Amino acid sequence: MSDVFNGRSLMIQGTTSDAGKSICVAGLCRVFKRHGINVAPFKPQNMALNSAVTPCGGEIGRAQALQAIACGLPLSTDFNPVLLKPSSDMKSQVIIHGKAVSQLDANTFGDIKQLAFAKVLQSYQKLLQQYDVVLVEGAGSPAEINLRQNDIANMGFAEAVDCPVILISDIDRGGVFAHLTGTVNLLSASEQARIKGFIINKFRGRLSLLQSGLDWLENYTHKTLFGVLPYLQSLKLDAEDAIDVESVTEDSQLKVKVPVIPRISNHTDFEPLKWHPKIQFEFVPAGQSLMGADLIILPGSKSVRNDLSYLREQGWETEIKKHLRYGGKLLGICGGFQMLGQSINDPDGIESQAGSTPGLNLLAFSTTLMPHKQLKQVQGNMNLNHSAPVSGYEIHCGVSRGPALNRPFAKVAEYHGETYTDGVISEDKQIMGTYLHGLFEKKDSLQSILYWAAEQQIVCEDWQDVRESELDRLADVFEAHLNIEAILQIAMSNKR
To answer: Which residues constitute the catalytic centre (predicted)?
Structure first.
């Protein structure tokens, strides 16, 4: 362990994936900020298809974007120096400091430490110098025996920088005491000592019924239980990975369906629609129908040609064209936009095997995937209704060209001031496509798109305001149910 990393930090690791690490770090970030602490989030290595773009044009995991918002900070690639984006079950794109640098397959995944760990430590040291406390999120579980040798995301990182750890587990899954004690028992002696205690997440019911188990846990492990978090219903915060295929409301002015393709990316785009009280929103899984929607949205994809083939295998191409014949509206976002055209060409094998795939042939343009990825934050105006303002971000390798693009979806300007047109609106205004993620987050743009889709006014609110309110709600729960003073003491101490 080196003195170079002598700083104030705390790491949240989980007994499993989806144990609550991301939300725990986001909640603690907001709590620390309330206490006047200059705090920053950090995740050494993330694997996710939901990502965000920083102002300087870098790419980070969506969870770290949410955590940065909780801290009141602009997005930075140092918050998530290594991002892995799976393009298949056997291959991932490697993004370091916001830029794609390599591809790793299942046979070379162990090379990640040699490839990236120095960059991880560089970002971490930089944050220690800039902030009072760095709150670190682990990945998956620290007890993955097969990954320990090349681990840079859990105890491999914590041991290298001498960072204390709190272990979180989801009681709603069942077996929480086995998860916590089993994880600790699989760690080395130094790693076990590094764990300062536990947080139990998503408890439903009367806490007194759990008390005997909590007492046993502390006596058995000789570690502190920092608290039990209740199950929070309808938490309107960006999900890192999970897709809820259930519809939220039946009292609707608009029915929206989104097909769940295998490499769906940035499905957090749809949170403002999913939680809108007047929209019946549905993620449609394999084997189910897209029919009955007023609006079908084709989402982003990390492997557009393969996902388009999957869409056809499900019979969804036929349903989309029937939907259009019956007067329904269709919107494509990023990869979904590319699917609307005549062809998708990948001559260099950027996303999959080199080749070309026919598009849905709904609009006269084609897309070619290029080696250089477009990463931009943009704002401008839509060419729809009353030229409502729009903002969002681009993450794509595709360059689209064709006469249909002479009727663009929007005119936008990127971070450095360059203006250009984006996307397409069909001549009959039944189909729209855009490269912009996040276009539903602002009230004016969302209301304009919903008016196009529903042909009636649907009142909306800014999603940023909803997100801020939910982060405050999360922090309120943390303050009520966790021993914040004890957690602060661990995070603020240089002594490990």
So the answer is: 334 (nucleophile), 437
Q: Which residues are designated catalytic?
A: 334, 437
Helices marked H in 314-442: 316-325, 335-339
3-235 in CATH: which number?
3.40.50.300
The rounded distance, in Å, linking the Cα atoms of 60 and 96 is: 9
- Grouping H, G, I as helix, E, B as strand and the rest as coil, residue 3 is helix
Residue pLDDT, tens place only, 235-261: 999 876 666 655 555 678 999 999 999
Q: What is the pTM of this model?
A: 0.90
For residue 136, the one-letter residue type is V
Report pLDDT digits (tens) over 90-110.
778 889 999 988 777 656 656
- DSSP classification of residue 406: G
Lookup: tokens for 321: 């064209």
Count Cα atoms within 13 angstroms, Cβ side, for 231: 11
Q: How far apart are CA 2 and CA 166, in angstroms?
A: 21
> What angle, 0 to 180 degrees and rounded to 10, lies between the N-to-C axes of helices 21-34 and 62-71?
20
Alpha-carbon distances, residue 130 vs 21, 38, 77, 191 (angstroms): 23, 9, 14, 27
**Dist CA 386 CA 42 (whole Å):** 41
Architecture of domain 254-463: 3-Layer(aba) Sandwich (3.40)
